[in-house]
Amino acid sequence: MVAFSVHGIGTRGSLLTLVPVAAMSVLVSFWLTPHVPPNLLMPVRAYTLVISLMLVAAVGTRGRGGPVLIPVGATLFYLSDLSVAAMRFAEPVFPTYIWGLPFYYTGQVMLALSIGYINKRDELRNE
Q1: At what angle do helices 69-85 and 38-60 cross, to 10 degrees?
Q2: What average pLDDT score do residues 95-119 get?
Q3: Which domain holds residue 19?
Q4: Distance between CA 43 and CA 39 in Å, rounded?
Q5: Number of compact structural domains in the chain
Q6: φ and ψ at 68, to 5 degrees?
Q7: What is the pLDDT of residue 30?
Q8: What is each CA distance from 89 to 15, 29, 41, 77, 82, in whole angstroms?
Q9: In this structure, are residues 4 and 17 in contact, taking their beta carbons and an 8 Å threshold?
Q10: Would you state the pLDDT for residue 8?
Q11: According to the 3-state scheme, what is the secondary structure of the chain?
C-alpha cells in the first residue's frame, strides 16, 4: 500500500472499489470463521482487512495514472490469498493451489513489471 501511495491513489476509484471489496471481505470472514482456531481468528481478520485495503489502494492507482498491471496484479494476489485460506482452514475437496499458485505468481510478476512501467513513464515525463 505504501508503494501504491508513492505515485498516488485516486479517491474515486478507491471509493468505488471499497464497497465490493468490503462485501467480499465480510463474506470471506463469515466463511472462514467456523474453520479458524480461536487463537488465530483475530490475526486472520486483521490480515483480511490489510489485504482488502491493499486491493482498494491498488485499484485507486488507476485514478492517478497508474498502469493497469497494478490493480490486476493486486486482484490476482488477493484471490491467491483466498486459495491459501481455503487450503489452510476450510480444507476443500478441490486443491485450491491449482488456481492459487498461478494467480499468486502472475500477480507478483504484474506488480513487479508495473514498477518498470512507472519508472519509464516518469523518465519520459522528465525529458
Answers
A1: 170
A2: 88
A3: 2-126
A4: 8
A5: 1
A6: -60, -20
A7: 92
A8: 30, 12, 11, 18, 10
A9: no
A10: 84
A11: CHHHHHHCCCHHHHHHHHHHHHHHHHHHHHHHHHHCCHHHHHHHHHHHHHHHHHHHHHHHHHHHCCCCHHHHHHHHHHHHHHHHHHHHHHCCCCCCHHHHHHHHHHHHHHHHHHHHHHHHHHHHHHC
